[in-house]
Amino acid sequence: MEETLQPIYDAVVVGNMPDTTARVQAALDNGVGTAAVLHEALIPAMSEVGRLFEQGEYFVPEMLIAARAMQAGLKILKPLLVEENIQFVGKIAIGTVKGDLHDIGKNLVAMMLEGAGFEIIDLGTNVAPETFIDSIKNDKVDMVAMSALLTTTMPNMAASIAAIKEAGLRDKVKIIIGGAPVTKEYAANIGADGYAPDASQAATLAKHLAL
Question: Would you place residue 147 in the very low, low, confident or very high pLDDT band (cuts 50, 70, 90)?
Fold first, then answer.
């Protein structure tokens, strides 16, 4: 890894937000390309954070702190990425389904997906099927990520997928789901393309489906 990129990688992995911000700016000031900072420092750092989480060395708080550090670095890059027309891996609309107001898990998944190189359209909580449909049409997303934390709101995942199908848009997007009560079997039963039990695996799944 380039000498100016390693400190960015290290700062994100340990979750040092001020250091990440300073290092990203310093790299750009020293002529390091925007794409290099993104693809050779921020994204690999979040991959390492995901690996540490899956190995049981990191837990949700550490992952959250690292994701926030990554977002701070990405905030500096975003205007430049747009200006230079650097492509993201894909575009994902994410939201907690209708009737469900929980957003902590959804927010962490959104940050991990962003850290994996995706452009994120965060639809928030209590998202109606029509809102997912509007995002597919208007935001031109490649993927939809749905979250539910309650067994009582899980059926709204099925309802949302059915509505997307009814609108003739099912073949235009991949759909992934997750949340505490959700299972792989449930995902298969309602016609989702995949299920992830946590934020790290959601990023891995999305990258796999984006290929």
Answer: very high
CA atoms 181, 185, 187, 191: torsion sign: negative
> For residue 90, which of 111, 118, 130 has the smallest C-alpha distance?
118
Report the SS3 class of residue 157. Answer: helix
Q: Provide the whole-model pTM.
A: 0.90
Which are the contacts of 61, defined by CB distance < 8 A and separation ≥ 6?
none
**What is the C-alpha to C-alpha distance for residues 139 and 43, in angstroms, rounded to an integer?**
23
Using the predicted structure, report yes or no on whether residue 1 has a pLDDT greater than 80.
no
For residues 67 and 53, give the distance between their C-alpha atoms in angstroms, rounded to a whole number.
12
Interhelix angle 43-54/199-210, rounded to 10 degrees, is 130
Region for 151 from its dihedrals, namely left if φ exceeds 0, alpha if ψ lies in -120 to 50, beta otherwise: alpha
Using one digit for the tens of pLDDT, what is the confidence trace for 87-144?
A: 889 999 999 999 999 999 999 999 999 999 999 999 999 999 999 999 999 999 999 9
Residues 6+ apart with CB under 8 A from 119: 88, 90, 91, 92
Count the Cβ atoms, other than its own, within 10 Å of residue 170. 17
Q: What does the angle CA 139 – CA 90 – CA 153 come to, to the nearest 5 degrees?
A: 65
CB 190 within 8 A of CB 156: no
